[in-house]
């Protein structure tokens, strides 16, 4: 992710694709001296990709920010927040450069969403499974006949900590205390 133009076909690149690739090369070059806010090393010099957070513009190695979010002992709100500013971010987006504007970051995010939306969700399994991420899942929820799952507004409830939680399908076993 973090790429510019398409160029996925076998024909020559369009002027727009050439310009897009030039913009990406320029942004990669401008990102060369950027340091990770966790390990304090230059990300590109380490041979790493950047891990962009959707809610802030702090700079991290993809590996460092993923490790930060994977620490088991941390509260889930801490794990989902930026280690520097504590803004909650739902996504870590891999990128070969640091976007130089909001529009550029939005384009990286859109490209990432588009890429994931073409990969079938391993939980949904063409309708044979149930995705625990519901409408938040970025992967493709496609039935065997090729139709896509309709996303209805989630049913929500408030938990003991005041957090809104999506409510899954209610089953009879839920009503009579039988574990699923």
Describe the overall structure.
Residues 115-144 form the C3H1-type domain. It holds the Pfam family zf-RING_2. This is RING-type E3 ubiquitin transferase. Residues 36-86 form the RING-type domain. Keywords: Metal-binding, Transferase, Zinc, Zinc-finger. The chain is an alpha+beta fold and 180 residues long. The protein folds into two domains: 15-116, Herpes Virus-1; 121-180, no CATH class. Helix content is 27%, strand content 8%. It is built from five helices and four strands, in the order αβααβαββα. It has helices at 15-30, 62-70, 76-79, 102-116, 172-176; strands at residues 50-53, 92-95, 156-158, 164-166. The strands form two sheets. The protein has a two-stranded antiparallel sheet with strand order 1-2. A two-stranded antiparallel sheet has the order 3-4. A hairpin with a 5-residue loop joins strand 3 (156-158) and strand 4. It is flat and about 45 Å long. Mean pLDDT is 83; it is low at 2-7.
Alpha-carbon Rg, integer: 20 Å
CATH topology of the largest domain: Herpes Virus-1
* Count of folded domains: 2
Query: Strands of the largest sheet, in order across it?
Result: 1-2
Measure the end-to-end span.
Answer: 39 Å
Oligomer: single chain
Q: Any idea what the shape is?
A: flat
Structural class of the helix and strand makeup?
A: alpha+beta
Low-pLDDT regions: 2-7
Helix content range of the residues, please? 25-40%
Number of strands: 4
Order of helices and strands: HEHHEHEEH
Strand content: 5-15%
Q: Mind describing the biggest β-sheet?
A: 2 strands, antiparallel
Q: Please tell me the overall pLDDT.
A: 83
CATH level-1 class of the largest domain: Alpha Beta
